[in-house]
Amino acid sequence: MGDSLYLDKKVEFPGIPTFSPEHFMVIRAKDSSKYKQFRRGIEQLDHEGVIQVLRSDLRGDQAPVLGAVGPMQFEVAEDRMTNEFNAPCSLERLNFSLARRTTPECVPTLARERSVEVLHRSDGELLALFSDRWRLQGVQKNHPDLVLEPLVVS
User: 86 — alpha (psi -120 to 50), left (phi > 0) or beta?
Assistant: First the structure.
């Protein structure tokens, strides 16, 4: 965010909070020859907290999923990818609106459910994405033993 000056005792600020994403889009490079710039841009945007980057083996590194609190964050990401990182991209909306933290043991069961996808966030967390709260409630009702924790501000 910026620099801090201090005398004697070092000042430590709490981390910037992250919020539970409610909007999800797949991002792809329009030009495969610019893949290096594409990756660098995605990593930088994720590091800055502009968006959350989610990946899966199914989608691969060429098509990560972006998670955001609001749709305007996608516009910012797309503009910066094109103009700052010289990596024009395309965005495709996904039909998910809820994310819940889960565990590796729950992935096989969740993978069999419709309108659910499990992805890895860049900080190592596993997130299960659901189309809506009714889908989440249905999965919880059918599998009460699954770990599906709300994402809290950290």
Answer: left
- Complete DSSP assignment for 52-114: EEEE-TTT-TTSPEEEESSTHHHHHHHHHHHHTSS--EEEEE-S--EEEEE-GGGHHHHHTST
What amino acid occupies position 56? Answer: S
CA dihedral 95, 139, 65, 24 (to 10 degrees): 40
Give tens-digit pLDDT for 75-125: 999 999 999 999 999 999 999 999 999 999 999 999 999 999 999 999 899
What is the Cα–Cα distance from 8 to 46, expressed in whole angstroms? Answer: 33
Task: Give tens-digit pLDDT for 22-43.
Answer: 999 999 999 999 999 999 999 9
128 neighbors 20 (Cβ within 8 angstroms): no
Residues shown for the chain: 154
State the sign of the Cα–Cα–Cα–Cα dihedral 145, 115, 120, 73. negative
